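Continuing the batch. This is chain 6 of the set; chains 1 through 5 are on the previous pages. Same settings as before, nothing changed between runs. Recording input and output for traceability.
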Amino acid sequence: MSTEDTRRRILAAALTVMSRHGLARLALEDVAREARVSRQTVYRYVGSRDGLITATILREEEAFLERMRSAASEHQELRPALAAAIASALTSAREHPLLDRLLETEPEALLPFLTDGSGPVLSAARTVVVELFGQYVPELGPDEQAVAADAATRLIVSYAISPSVTPTDALAHHLADLMVGGVVGQRR
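Output for chain 6:
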C-alpha cells in the first residue's frame, strides 16, 4: 500500500471515528483500529491527536475549496463567481454531518480549528478568495488582496458555523455584493 493510500485510510477512519465519538473522545487507538493499521502508523502519519484533527479538517476543507473553485470557474465576472463560491461553501458546510454534529455537541473543541486566523480552515479558504480577487481584480496589490480575502473568508466561515435564516443563494449574493462593492468600490 502506498504512503498516500495509508494516509487516506487514516484520515477516512478519523472522520468515521469523529462521527461516532466526537472530538472529546477521539482516540488514536480507535482510528488505528478503524484504518486497520498500528497506532504507531497513525502517529507516524499525523504526529499527534491534534495533528490528526487538523489533517482531517484540512482534508474536508480541501473538498469544500475544490467545490468553491469549481462553482466560481463557471462565471466570467467577480460578483457572480464570488456568489457561486460562497453559496457552494455554505451549502457544503450545512450538508456536512460531522460539522453540524460537532457544532451542536462540541463547539469548544471545533471552533479553534475554524476561527483561528492562522488555523487550517481560514488559511485554506483565504487562498481561494485571494485567487478569485487576483483573477478578476488583477489591479489589486497583494496586500489589498490579502485584507479583502481575510475579511471575506471570516464572513463565510461565520455564516457556515452560525447559519442565517436567509436562503443560501440570496445570502451568497448579498455577501458577494458587499465584498465586491468594498473591494472594487475602493478602486474608483
